[in-house]
């Protein structure tokens, strides 16, 4: 996992930005070519984009000659309980954008993110009105939290006791997040092992099962204050869709987003439901906006067997049409 060659171009505390090395001299980025910045969700390690050598979103972008940077927020510990979503939106993501542009020599960049990573990409443009962002790609990124089914209900019920609960718990343990993923998976959590037994002859299937299973069981802690804010302002308050979300007095205005957008939703996603994800099309100001509902659940949409065909390659084609590819591609 995470085996695509990269080099660290910035490290400040736990925050790290890596640049993917070109696949060959013929695929080196052109001078000034807009890079792509991949933003991972909280509680998920960044290798979600680079699961294994033969099944890697990072590798797909690299093979297309796209100058690719990967954000790593690090693994939160007790010292990070105070970190809020404000820190990601006002500090961490902007720093990574600045460094990627400086390193690449480009004037603009594309932000690509899965789940909360996609939300961070959207929040960056909505909050900072950053015209250096040439376009946004979101994968299973919820926007309207009133449309998230059982999670919406749980958030409204839990908001009353969230402060007391989190002050006792501290950071949300990765094991607890993994359990939540499995519970939300419903019967599929059990039947997937039946499918594994039926496909033991298929090495590719077994390797895919192993990498995704490892990822789901390798989730990392969620900072305490950031989780409180997520429940209060996003899940319960739905402030982003309502236009009431602020970070240090700056309003995250979706209508202010004018850059092109490509959004994906998993047809069977019961976490970031298609209805929640698709709402971005109604709320942003951009005229160039596309939405694709593709096969898969919350994990399958970004890492499943059909992700290369249904998500990764369409992203490459979308970026290629806008000049984000290197020489000889």
What does this structure look like?
The chain is of the alpha/beta class. The chain has a domain of 226 residues: Alpha/Beta hydrolase fold, catalytic domain (Rossmann fold, 3-Layer(aba) Sandwich). It is 42% helix and 16% strand. The protein contains 13 helices and 10 strands. It has an 8-stranded mixed beta sheet, sandwiched between helices. It has a two-stranded antiparallel sheet with strand order 7-8. Helix 2 packs across helix 3, helix 4 packs across helix 9 and helix 5 runs antiparallel to helix 9. The longest helix has 20 residues. It is globular and about 55 Å long. About 3% of the residues have low confidence.
For this structure, the CATH topology of the domain at 6-148 and 238-320 is Rossmann fold
CATH homologous superfamily (4th level) name of the domain at 6-148 and 238-320 = Alpha/Beta hydrolase fold, catalytic domain
Strands of the widest sheet, in order across it, are: 1-2-4-3-5-6-9-10
Please tell me the CATH architecture of the domain at 6-148 and 238-320 by its name.
3-Layer(aba) Sandwich
Order of helices and strands: EEEHEHEHEHHHHHHHEEEHEHH
Q: How many E strands? A: 10
* Fraction of helical residues: 40-55%
């Amino acid at each position: 996992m995470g085996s695509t060659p990269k080099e660290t171009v910035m490290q400040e505390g736990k925050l790290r930005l890596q640049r993917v090395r070109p696949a060959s001299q013929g695929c080196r980025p052109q001078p000034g070519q807009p890079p792509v910045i991949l933003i991972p969700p909280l509680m998920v390690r960044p290798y979600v984009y680079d699961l294994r050598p033969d099944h890697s979103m990072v590798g797909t972008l690299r093979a297309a000659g796209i100058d690719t940077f990967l954000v790593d927020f690090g693994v939160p510990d007790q010292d990070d309980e105070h970190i809020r979503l404000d820190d990601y939106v006002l500090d961490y993501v902007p720093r990574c954008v600045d460094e990627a542009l400086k390193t690449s020599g480009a004037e603009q960049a594309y932000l690509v993110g899965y789940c909360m990573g996609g939300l961070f990409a959207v929040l960056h443009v909505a909050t900072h009105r950053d015209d250096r962002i040439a376009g946004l790609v979101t994968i299973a990124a919820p926007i309207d939290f009133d449309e998230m089914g059982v999670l919406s209900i749980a958030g409204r019920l839990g908001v009353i006791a969230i402060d007391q609960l989190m002050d006792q718990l501290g950071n949300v343990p990765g094991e607890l997040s993994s359990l939540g993923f499995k519970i939300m998976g419903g019967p599929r959590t059990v039947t997937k092992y039946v499918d594994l037994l039926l496909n033991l002859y298929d090495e590719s299937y077994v390797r895919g099962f192993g990498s995704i299973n490892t990822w789901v069981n390798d989730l990392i802690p969620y900072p305490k204050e950031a989780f409180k804010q997520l429940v209060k302002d996003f899940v319960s308050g739905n402030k982003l869709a309502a236009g009431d979300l602020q970070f240090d007095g700056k309003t995250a205005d979706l209508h202010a987003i004018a850059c092109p957008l490509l959004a994906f939703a998993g047809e069977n996603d019961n976490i970031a439901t298609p209805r929640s994800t698709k709402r971005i099309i109604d709320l942003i100001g951009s005229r160039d906006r596309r939405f694709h509902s593709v096969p898969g659940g919350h994990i399958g949409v970004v890492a499943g067997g059909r992700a290369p065909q249904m998500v990764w390659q369409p992203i490459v084609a979308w970026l290629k049409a806008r000049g984000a590819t290197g020489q000889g591609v």
